[in-house]
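Support request, please re-run this one:
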Amino acid sequence: MRPRDDPRGGPDGEPGRGAGGDLEVDGLRAVDAIARGVRGAAPVEVPGRLCRVAVDLLPVTGASVSLRSDGMPVQLSASSAEAAHLAHIQATLGDGPCQRALEDGAPVLACDLTTGPDAGRWPVFAQQATAAGVRAVYAVPLGNDSVCVGTLDLYRDRPGRLSEQQLHVARIVAGVMTVALMALPRGDEPEVAGGEAWLSGLGADHDAVYQAVGMIMAQLGVTADEALARLRADAFARGLTALDAARDVITHRKRFDRD
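Re-run finished. Output below.
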């Protein structure tokens, strides 16, 4: 994983004043990048594309996505071989930020694996991660309020925290990743404990649905699960297909406002 600085940011990856503080604006910019990154990809290719988009959007050097299983987490895709290696370390040890995020269903931000509480919390993982050149790991859960089916794990070659804006962008990438897993054709997705019924296919033209869900997440500040439910409800109310409703969101003919 090559060193990478956030061109928009200040120390420790914090966004500079020019980056702005509007979460919706930051989110919509991220959605545009996600749309470009997954355009034309087959459903099975999308998780890997999203990992690479995450590296482009955030001050991180690698990303991987792992799914919960009855045994070890299943490493599905990664932005690089180095990121895949970090995911395998956590799965093998059964310990680390990814494992904690799976258990808690909430983001786990290990901002400094070289010293202090994070290094002490996962001492063996911290030692192996730093030996591999990683100093911070951020794990963002995939799924919804009732089931966490996996994590998006972000790796960084220097200590530091994510800003509120950067964590917001990471959540949007994770939300679109969640919807992408729902679009996997039957038989292509790994077996996921407790999530088989949830991983139902969305069919073709998934690019538009991903983009619309990301935009609704940015507009309302909701999870991917809620954003997809809002999109489907809007389609039903207006007598449209979900794809037609998604296209209305993308072309700004339809906007979802906070209550």
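The chain has one domain: 19-250. The first strand starts at residue 62 and ends at 67.
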